[in-house]
Every structure is written in C-alpha cells, then in structure tokens.
Amino acid sequence: MALTTLDPNTALIVVDLQKGIVGSPFIHPLGEVVERTRALLAAFRERQLPVVLVNVAGRAPGRTERPPQQTGPYPEGWTDVLPELDQQPSDIPVTKRTWGAFARTGLEDRLKALGVTQVVVAGVATGTGVEATARQAYEQGFNVTLAVDAMTDARAIAHDYSIANVFPRLGETGTTREIIGLLETRSA
C-alpha cells in the first residue's frame, strides 16, 4: 500500500539505533539510515510531534534454538542511543528487553495518553526490532507507517521479506522524503 496520509497526532519511533549495535554488518550503510532518521527526527520535533527513542538492553527470557549473541553484562555505553540522534528532553526514551518496543514497556499507554493514533517506525533491524515494533503497534490499534529507507538489517532476505510481505499487511510504507512531504503538506 502506498503512503496516503499521516494522522494529526503521529509519533516517530526509532528502534535500536544505539552504540552497541552500530558495528553490526548491515546490508545498507548505517550512516545513510542514521541521516534519514535524523531528517525524520528534525521534521517531527519541528512540529512538536512525539519522538520515541528505543534501545534494547536484554532479551526475552524464553528458550530458543540459537544461543544469545550477548551473554553477561553489556559493555559500558552499549545501550546508549547514538549521539547523532541528538536526544532531546522532550523525547520519550524506551528501553526494551524483547524485539518489540511495546512489550512490557508502557509505550502504548504513554502514546495513547498523548492522543497518538499513528506511528512511523524506523531503525534496525528490519526483520526483528522494526518488524516486531510495527506488529505490536498494529495490534494495539495504531495506524502504522514504515520508513523503508530509514531501516536496515544484517540479513538481506529478512529486510526484503519484511518490506515486501509483512509491512504492507501492517500499514503503509514510504520513504523518508515522502513522509516528510506529508508532514510539510499538512503544516502548510
């Protein structure tokens, strides 16, 4: 589904752009993802729309076939949001311990208390943190938009599958430029 509109009270959710993850081997240059995310952040902040900066500091407790990549405590600064995102006092920080930003974080209640009806999701990784956050937002009744050029994954197959097959079932997809264009049109 092509991007059609943004609700008057739309929030931006930036997933896992944090120091401990930036060294991962992503399929798209992370610098480009960060720059596009910065453009989204500027557009949302300029319009005083809610901005949520999510970091991950753990994992779900369930048993899996793959061992955890991180065992023991995280290194100093691992969970810190990238300084390029210029975290502001008005931003909503969320620390998650699962793939999605809504599970056991109180994010749904915080956004609904602000009257948010739609979310734009960007960040890493497309097939895990971004997709799980989008799924949870959709399940909680938010309209969902995915900034497909402001996300990446370490696995091309996961990135491409999410964009082509999952995201169109959860909401609308668009580029950073298209999303900002809708914000500008609405503000004019």
TrEMBL record:
Record keywords, A-Z: Hydrolase
Record flagged with keyword Hydrolase: yes
Isochorismatase-like domain sequence ranges: 10-177
GO terms for MF: hydrolase activity
Keyword Hydrolase assigned: yes
Transmembrane segments: none
Xref: Pfam families: Isochorismatase
Coiled coil location: none
Superkingdom assignment: Bacteria
PANTHER family assigned: ISOCHORISMATASE FAMILY PROTEIN YECD, PEROXYUREIDOACRYLATE/UREIDOACRYLATE AMIDOHYDROLASE-RELATED
Name recorded for this polypeptide: Hydrolase
Organism lineage string: Bacteria, Pseudomonadati, Pseudomonadota, Alphaproteobacteria, Rhodospirillales
